[in-house]
Amino acid sequence: MDYDVIVAGAGPAGSITATVVARAGYHVLVLEKDTSCRSPCAGYISSTINIELPEDCIIQSKIRKMRTYFPDLSFHDFQVNGSVVDRPSFDTSLAVRAKESGAQIRWGSSLIDLIRGGVRFRGGKVSGKIIVGADGVFSKVATLIGNDKQRVASCAQYHLRGIELLPETCEIFFDADYAPGGYAWIYPVGEETAKVGLGILDYYVTKSCSHSKKHTKVGLGSAREHLDAFISESSMAERLCGKRTGYIRGALPIGGLRKKLCCGNVLLVGDSAGMADPITGAGINNALLAGEIAGKTIITALENDDVTLLEQYESKIDRLLGIPLARSLEKRNKLDEYCITNELLQRHLPELWVTFREYWS
Ligand SMILES: Cc1cc2nc3c(=O)[nH]c(=O)nc-3n(C[C@H](O)[C@H](O)[C@H](O)COP(=O)(O)OP(=O)(O)OC[C@H]3O[C@@H](n4cnc5c(N)ncnc54)[C@H](O)[C@@H]3O)c2cc1C
Q1: How far apart are CA 35 and CA 12, in angstroms?
Q2: Which one of 92, 145, 254, 318 is least enclosed by Cβ atoms within 10 Å?
Q3: 3-state secondary structure at position 66
Q4: Which ranges of 58-153 would DSSP assign to H, the alpha helix?
Q5: pLDDT (tens digit, 9 = 90+) per residue, 207-232?
């Protein structure tokens, strides 16, 4: 065997898993599709994270408050404690940590297939006892072990300079016209600079949706088109009239935990396993938490030379994330129903969004 563990993906989930296993002295290879870390993200990380923020990660702002706007722009404030980080620097420092713990990383090496005793990747074949799919929302590994396609939200985000901001505050906007099925966000990253983005349900982008044409400003259109409309036409337009200095787009899973997280010698971690919150879309904390659990479970399996012990991973994840993700999925299904009109959203938002007491009751 070339390696004890092969991890596909050098995002937070993959790098943490690799770090935990490599620190125990096992041979770990990380295969990363891209040539550097560049997962699209807004980078909000709550202080409940299970690791110390790496020293070389760029913290762009501290966040103390989340202001959630109803469609009529009345709002609700909630105290939070978190940071907005520069995501490439965050992921890079975690990958460096994995490397310093002894893992090897092959950049530009997409995993293509699972084969007997290992994997095929762009560039060759390599053998390994245990395979970890940490390859994100469109995970190849998850498909190869028999999971269906996951439901996703489509997101777009600009870096805007020269705009009016509320200090230390993340702003969240619910509006069926501009962000159907999702929300728009303004996350400050410095003086008069913010990440301004939104996420929308995928069926407003690609499939025919009877109500979308009638009720959204854009009708059927990409997340970017919805974001452009939010920035230039919504009641926020005057505030958001700044210089666009960056753009990213991406998708996040909103279907909750996938059916199979483990199959033989293969485990799924992070977005590949559907661990992002179906309502907020936040997935970094859960990816890190699950990566640690995956790593520890893998160590037990390797110590006992018994891959059947990997099955414990599913029940451990279920104990930790099962209830919150199931609750959030239930809320997601309601939001799908209520996002059709602003009247419905206005009335039902408190039971759908995490900062309201009604969400938890
Ligand atoms: C626009 C946007 C904003 C977001 N904002 C936030 C936020 O503010 N806070 C938050 O908590 N979450 C946010 N999320 C969600 C968060 O980005 C993810 O939940 C998180 O990145 C999951 O980590 P991961 O390691 O599982 O996957 P990823 O970070 O996606 O990493 C997967 C890695 O696998 C690689 N890969 C893919 N396929 C292969 C392959 N076949 N072989 C090898 N490598 C492969 C990818 O290149 C990538 O590096 C946001 C998502 C989007 C799209």
Answers
A1: 16
A2: 318
A3: strand
A4: 87-100, 140-144
A5: 444 444 445 666 668 899 999 999 99
Say whether 322 sits in a helix, a strand or coil.
helix
Sign of the alpha-carbon torsion through 219, 199, 138, 95? positive
How far are the Cα atoms of 179, 187, 204, 215, 290 from residue 207, in angstroms, in the given order? 16, 30, 6, 15, 33
Query: Please, what are the domains in the chain?
Result: 3-52+86-149+257-327 (3.50.50.60), 152-253+329-360 (3.30.9)
Using the CB atoms, write b or e for 17-35: b if 16+ within 10 Å: bbbbbbbbebbbbbbbbee
pTM higher than 0.85: yes
For residues 359 and 350, the answer to whether their CB atoms sit within 8 Å is: yes
3-state SS string for 261-298: CEECCEEECHHHHCCCCCCCCCCHHHHHHHHHHHHHHH
| Amino acid identity for residue 334 in this structure | K
d(CA 155, CA 311): 33
Contact at 8 Å (CB) between 187 and 42? yes
**Cα(45) to centroid(ligand 1), Å:** 13
Give 54's pLDDT tier (boundaries 50, 70, 90).
Answer: confident
Q: How far is the CA of 270 from the centre of ligand 1 (A)?
A: 8
Q: How far is the CA of 103 from the centre of ligand 1 (A)?
A: 20
- Residues within 6 Å of ligand 1 by CB: 8-14, 31-34, 39-44, 110-111, 134-136, 140, 155, 157, 197, 250-252, 270-272, 276, 281-285, 287
